[in-house]
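[[Encoded backbone]]
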Amino acid sequence: MRNDEHTRSEPEPRPERGREPEPSVAAAAPAGFTLCSLLWARPGLADELAVYEDRVLDLLPEHGIEVLHRARIDRGPDHPVEVHLYAVPSEASLEAYLADPRRLELAAERDRVVARTEVFRAAGA
């Protein structure tokens, strides 16, 4: 008789019918993504918008977010005055940045200088 004939391994437990097995931590970890932000200034306040953005963009590295590109545009009031691309490592890092008290303290300044903002994920970036 061989030794391995006496040892049986228990079968792996099967998930309950209708339930998927729990994903692994690695599978559940969100992948990074690229965000694009378009900013319109209030009339005559494009330079002040840039100063505001200088301040809040300085907070990004502390949350693991990288500014990939920042461009100023002068095409008139119907167009954004700044376009930004960010490399964001996770939803959690973005949420932490958005909730950063130093950023929130600047909300009144933002409201004063920013007329409109569009933020969206950039595909294929």
Q: What stands out?
A: The chain has one domain: 30-121. The mean pLDDT is 82. Helices lie at 25-28, 46-57, 91-98, 101-104, 107-113. The longest strand covers residues 33-41.
